[in-house]
Amino acid sequence: MSTSKNPTTSCSTRTGAAKALSASTIALHGPLDKRRPTGPLITPIVQSTTYTQRAVGECDGPTYSRVGNPTVDQLEAVLGALEDAPPSVCFGTGLAAETALFLTLLRAGDHAVIADAIYGGTVRLFRQVLSELGISATFVDSSDIAQIAAAVTPRTKLVFIETPANPTLKLTDIQGVARITKAAGVTLIVDNTFLTPALQRPLDLGADVTVYSTTKHIEGHSTSLGGAVTSRDEKLIERLRWIRKCTGNIQAPFNAFLTIQGLKTLPLRLKEQSRNAQRIAEWLASHPQIETVYYPGLKDFPQREIAERQHIGGLHGGVISFEIKGGTPAGIKLLNSAKLCRLVEHVGSVETLLTHPASMTHADVPREQRERVGLTDGLIRLSVGIEDPADIIADLEQAIAAAAQETANSTETIATGPIATGSKGGVACATR
Ligand SMILES: Cc1ncc(COP(=O)(O)O)c(C=O)c1O
Description:
Layout: E1 10-11, E2 21-22, H1 23-29, H2 70-82, E3 89-91, H3 94-105, E4 111-115, H4 120-129, E5 136-140, H5 145-151, E6 156-162, H6 174-184, E7 187-191, H7 196-199, E8 209-213, E9 227-231, H8 234-247, H9 253-263, H10 266-285, E10 290-294, H11 304-310, E11 319-324, H12 327-337, E12 342-343, E13 353-355, H13 367-372, E14 380-383, H14 389-409
Parallel strand pairs: 4-5, 4-6, 6-7, 7-8, 12-13
Antiparallel strand pairs: 1-2, 3-9, 8-9, 10-11, 11-14, 13-14
Helix pairs in contact: 1-2, 2-9, 3-8, 12-14
Bound molecules: pyridoxal-5'-phosphate.
């Protein structure tokens, strides 16, 4: 590890500026003031559901693992320190974290302004669950911050954005939105799952809360589900812990252990994944069979200025999306032809992953909203891993060639209706 501090990835711990540690150091050791001089190097997994009490009303730590658990506490300390915040609050999944956060901030009659290009599960939570509880939402194009300002009403309690957005990679100017939310007195939440605190620090840019699916890059090895919320607002964090206790959705200790282990290489992985993604995005952009490529690191990316200002160290993360010539049938042929790149509903793992958002992660987003944000049936999401990029390119090359061959051979009329889900001869996949 280099001893010189990269100013772009350096963040101070709550122990004060003199002890400021880099993100790569915090990811390994956690906040300095929590370090113990002796004891196991690796955080132990405390599986105990409950804790012996010295006498009635006398105990030193947690009493029951739904409320607090030492392994989960350690993960929370590391995640909070990465954003110069008090310990985060960790949940069983990313969606459990979002649900608890919305239950903390919203009541019947309240209103939320939501970016229209976000993870499909968050859209479903608002459209199909929270709407039933009397909470309304307006979905806006958050790349145009004037639309956010116009959507805020006296009933608005929060603005929720995701940048880069899943899967279109559309960016939102966090500082611009924070000016609007501060003036209106509403809470700004940023889903920072794609870049993580290693590549983007929304709380430094004026956001009030960050939310994560730790299932993705933070854990990074596809071995555990998890979610986290981070904020410098101690009252909000306290209330969120109370909601978690009442609703019972704390992260399991074993998953917290795996997440702590994965987190140790987060800055290293994201650096490598970003470099690989940059090379692959440039290769895709120059490929004659590829129609469009979305990646914030490309010179002609429409929101390049925001990417340069907002992302740390000139790195833009591991996720690319693109469309192949020949539309949806060619896209599906490509997805079905890749061998090294795995077809899954997931991002952020060390392996390179391919996803078909329209039939998988965003299947529950209304077609009209999908089309408005550019999430076409032919869009392919590529989550670049840490393999040798030349091997990833070779696999994509053969899959693109197979797709082009199929398009050239096809004499059938291409169907334009909703795409079929499920597998030929197999069991239909349940969307998540
Ligand atoms: C950006 C983003 N936020 C939140 C979630 C939800 O996370 P989880 O699957 O851990 O519930 C996902 C899942 O894919 C996601 O991509």
